[in-house]
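4.2 Preliminary Data

To establish feasibility before requesting continued support, the project team ran the inverse folding procedure on a target of 302 residues. The structure was first converted into the token representation described in Section 3, and no sequence information of any kind was made available to the design step. The complete token record follows.
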């Protein structure tokens, strides 16, 4: 007997799938994978200009990699598709940005038709995935939502992608050199650092109290260098850092307040970011994810 554990989807994450309609039928899984990878590269080239240069918290937006069982996996045979997820947290604007991107993809890529509504003949029973896709692709089936619904959607997405850029904030911080090196190679990781800090718990704070990774001297001796860098993040992330009171770990080299409010504020923000990186790293190390992925390789080369 095979057991299937169904996990509740997080409330602050949006999931999406794209089913291309122009893939040849009766092809092998290997041929499907090649076609999807090619399409994936075209999609990323199309949507990347919509992202601020250092804000990659939602990119890559789509993937061809395996994921937990979803309808496409249960279809017989499995339906080739691209999929992705975006955790927007407190920033609801990111969710609407994803909606905007999906609209733009549907317009620019004919293989991805979009449906604004579900045909009435598919109710009351829930249709299979293949039946739903066939309804969307059939020009004789009306999947257009009412004008009032379309008007609401257009108002929500009409200001993108410019709204994403205006929602960014750049700030100067003072961080340990290893943190600066990570952000130089992977500036998008600032989102994970802020998330790690903002969602900290007692266990993760124990890691921050030691700072074993990002305050380690690597046997070079002397004091660890603190550097001044410019970091770009969303306004929500900046607010999450500024509004939370947090005592620096005893091991962390904070300047005295007599050095001035500007120096102290830069150091305090940098300390919170460094602690976020430490929590994020140690959490993934405990989960067995240390040393995996391109971001880790970038840090190792830094």
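Position-by-position output of the design step:
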């Amino acid at each position: 007997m095979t057991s299937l554990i169904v996990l509740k989807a997080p409330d602050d994450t949006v999931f999406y799938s794209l089913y291309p309609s122009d893939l040849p039928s009766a092809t092998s899984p290997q041929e499907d994978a090649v076609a999807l990878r090619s399409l994936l590269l075209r999609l990323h080239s199309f949507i990347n200009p919509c992202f601020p240069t250092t804000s990659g918290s939602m990119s890559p937006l789509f993937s061809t990699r395996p994921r937990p069982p979803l309808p496409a996996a249960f279809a017989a045979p499995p339906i080739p598709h691209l999929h992705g997820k975006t955790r927007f947290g407190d920033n609801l604007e990111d969710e609407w940005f994803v909606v905007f991107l999906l609209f733009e993809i549907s317009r620019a890529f004919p293989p991805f038709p979009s449906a604004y509504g579900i045909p009435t003949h598919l109710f009351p029973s829930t249709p299979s995935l293949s039946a739903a896709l066939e309804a969307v692709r059939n020009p004789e089936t009306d999947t257009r939502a009412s004008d009032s619904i379309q008007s609401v959607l257009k108002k929500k997405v009409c200001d993108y992608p410019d709204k994403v850029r205006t929602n960014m904030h750049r700030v100067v911080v003072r961080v340990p050199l290893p943190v600066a090196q990570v952000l130089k190679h992977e500036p998008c990781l600032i989102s994970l650092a802020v998330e790690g800090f903002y969602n900290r718990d007692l266990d993760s704070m124990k890691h921050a109290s030691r700072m074993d990774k990002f305050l380690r001297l690597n046997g070079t001796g002397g004091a660890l260098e603190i550097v001044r860098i410019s970091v770009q993040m969303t306004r929500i992330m900046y607010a999450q850092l500024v509004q939370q009171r947090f005592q620096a770990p005893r091991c962390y080299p904070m300047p005295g307040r007599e050095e001035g409010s500007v120096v102290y504020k830069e150091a305090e923000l940098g300390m919170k970011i460094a602690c976020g990186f430490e929590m994020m790293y140690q959490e993934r190390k405990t989960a067995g994810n240390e040393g995996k992925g391109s971001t880790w390789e970038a840090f190792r080369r830094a």
